[in-house]
Amino acid sequence: MSALYIDERTAASLINMDDALKLVEESFSSFSKGEAFNMTRQRMRIRKGALHMLPGAVPYKGVIGFKAYTSFRAGLIFKVHLYDAETGSPLAIIDANEIGRLRTGAASGIASKYMSKKDTNIAFIFGGGFQAEAQLEAVHKTTPLKKVYAATRKIENAAAFAEKMSKLLNIEIIPTLNIAEDLPKADTIITITTSVKPLFEHTMINPDGVHINAAGSNALIRTEVPEKTLEAAEVLAVDNKDVAEIECGDILPSLEKGRLHWNSILELGEITCGYRKGRLSENGITVFQSQGMGLQDIMCAEYIYRKAVAENLGIILPF
Question: Which of 1, 56, 84, 237 is the most exposed place for a label (fewest CB within 10 A)?
Answer without folding.
Answer: 1
